[in-house]
Amino acid sequence: MNAVKDFFIGEWYFALPLVLMSLVAAALVIWRLLLNNTANTDLDDFLPIFQQTLRKGGVKSAVALCKEEKGLIPNRLFVAGLEAADQGAAAMRRSMANETELEIVPRLHFLLAPILAIAKIATMVGLFFTVISMINTFNAIGEQASAGKAKEIGGHASKIGLALFATALGLFTAIPLVFSHVLFKQWIANFEIRVKTASQKLITLVTNYKKDPKLLDEPMDMDEDEEKDDRKRKAKGARRG
Known about the structure:
Elements: H1 2-10, H2 12-39, H3 43-68, H4 72-83, H5 89-108, H6 112-146, H7 157-211, H8 222-240
Helix pairs in contact: 1-2, 1-7, 2-6, 2-7, 3-4, 3-7, 4-5, 4-7, 5-7, 6-7
C-alpha cells in the first residue's frame, strides 16, 4: 500500500493522466450501457399492443404508437417501414434496410471507437511513462556510481518498482475496456438479428392487415414465417433448376 501511495503522490505527473483516462473510460462504458438499455424494447409485450392499434386505428395510429416508444426497433425501424407501407412490401424492406444501415447501426456503434481507443492508448501511455521513469532512474544510478556513491544506489531500486506502477495502471484501465468492447460488439450482433426478425414480422403484420384486419387477431409465429420463406425460396430454386 505504501508503494501505491508513493506512486500516486511522488509520481503524480505520471499517475494523473492514467487516472483521468480511467475515469473517462468508466464514464463512456456507463453511457453506452444506458444507451443499450434505452435502445431495447420488449417486443413480446409491445407487439400485441401494436397489433391491436394497427387493427383498430390503421397505419397512422400504429406510427403514432411507435413514435412514443424509445426503443430503436419501434421508434426507428417500424416507423420507417410503416411510412412506406402504402407502396408495398418491397418498399417497406428497402425503407427499413436504409434505416438500419444509416441510423440504427451507427447508433449501436456510438462510443465503441473511443472505448477501444482509450484501451489501446492507456496501455501505451503506461508503458511510455514506465520507460521514462526507468531511464531517469538508471541515469541517476549511473551518476552516483561514477561519483563513488555506491551505498546510495540501492535506494533507487524502489523507484524502479514505482515506475512499473504506470504500466500496471495502464493495464488496469485497458483490460476492462477491451472486455467491455467485446461484450458490446456481441450485443450489437444479437440486436441486428432482432432487427431482421422484427422487420419480417412487421411486413407480415402489415400484409395481413391489408388482406383482412381480422387476421391480426391470430398473429403468425415468426418460425412459421421463416419456414414459409424457406419453402418459397426452395420452390423458386427448383423451378429454376
